[in-house]
Amino acid sequence: QVQLVESGGGLVQPGGSLTLSCAASGDSLDYSAIGWFRQAPGSGRNAVACIRTSDDNRYYINQVKGRFTISRDKAKNIMYLQMNSVKPEDTATYYCAASSLINTCVDYGMDSWGKGTLVTVSS
What we know:
By secondary structure, this protein is mainly β.
C-alpha cells in the first residue's frame, strides 16, 4: 500500500498562490485514481481535483475550475495541486488520496490517504 505525505500548506493572502505536494512511498502512485480532497472546519471531506490515471483525464469541482491545477510527476512519484487566486472559502485541510478500486475520486472509494496539510486563506 502506498504511503502519502502532503506538504506545502500554510497561510496565504486572498488572491495569492500556493502549491501543495503529495509524496508517495512504498508503492507507485499509479493507482486508478489519485486526487486532492479538502475539509473545511465543521464540514465534510470532499474531492477537489482528480486524475484518472488510465487516460490522464483531470476533473475539478466547479468552485476551483480555472484556479487550481492538479498534476503529477511519475518519475518522482509526486502529485501537486497548484492553487491560484485563492479565496477565503478555500481555507481547509487538504488531503491527497489514491484509489486502487475505482477510477474516480470519492471519499469512500479511496484506500490510501495522507494526514493532510492546512491551508488558511486570510489577510
